[in-house]
Prior knowledge:
369 residues; 2 domains; 7-stranded parallel β-sheet; alpha/beta; 15 helices; globular
Amino acid sequence: MRVAIIHYWLVGMRGGEKVLEALCNIYPCADIYTHVYDIAAISDVIRKHKVHTTFIDGLPYSKKMYKKYLPLMPMALEQIDLNEYDLVISSESGPAKGVIPTSTAVHVCYCHSPMRYIWNMYNRYYDSSGLMTRLMMPPLAHYLRTWDVATANRVDDFAANSATVAQRIKSYYRRDAEVIHPPVDTAAFRPVAASELGDYHLMVGELVGYKRPDLAVEAFNRMKAKLVVIGGGEMLDHLRKIAGPTVTILGPQPFDVLKHHYARCKALIFPGEEDFGIVPVEAMASGRPVIAFGRGGATETVVRDRTGVFFGTQTVEALIDAVERLERIDFDPADAVARAGEFRTEIFMEKFKSFVVRSTASRAQVGVA
């Protein structure tokens, strides 16, 4: 089949782009369409494909300020010519699924989440924005929600990266979605001997408000216990200011440093609510337990009281209690590694291929009828 993959933007390698890499490996001749393409920030796997951009890519400072052009993205998507493709795969988190395939093409959407900034996290983005943005957000979000719901009808079948996201798809679009957890390169991580373990906990991820890195820092300040934080983002400077003497903010680090700390930490701290959350799976693949907020994708990957523990409210007291509870659990690194193996890349690829086959067959039966 002639395959087109629509991905919202290509400006870095995060979870969505790891999914795109797997799709590229499934469909090695697929063409990719995206709003903005920063070739230097993208992996060789993706660069091997023919990448087309919308007119957004040609606008001023688009590679840094692409989100400012969100109101124009629906129009940009609808200008993409997909007439030559039999299968269209949209990778949705920002605007991607709103393309217009031919009436004979199959369109499947792998949804990382409906756009957070107009749906489940709208109020959080609104509250943290400046005056001008707050004035613009209500009418803009209303327009985008209307368009977003309407374009759900352009999708033949949805796949969601977690049950959490499948529920959002049901709530916002009134569509069912098959849950296919995203690929994790679990083979890249491995445990170390007990003698090599450190005396610190670890937090990894983009340092932004909804991931609650401040909660982890405040809890370990209060406990006077060691915490290492790896990641960059808008809160990096703030966290360095509030970090006590037992908290080390490393900022962005290369993969080898990340692997080193994953394998040697006492446990991973995961205080935010994520759609899926690859970081806990990487920690478990490294043989380490997870202390996670008990909502979102972590509840689908971490096994309670076996590969980690949960805390029910995003408070310092609840996180401290969870840290103390984990110390009383008889944790086996082999259990964590085995659980992580259930999310390896090969499983994602097989499930996604089967999903597309079923969608194509279902569409063919409708056509015959």
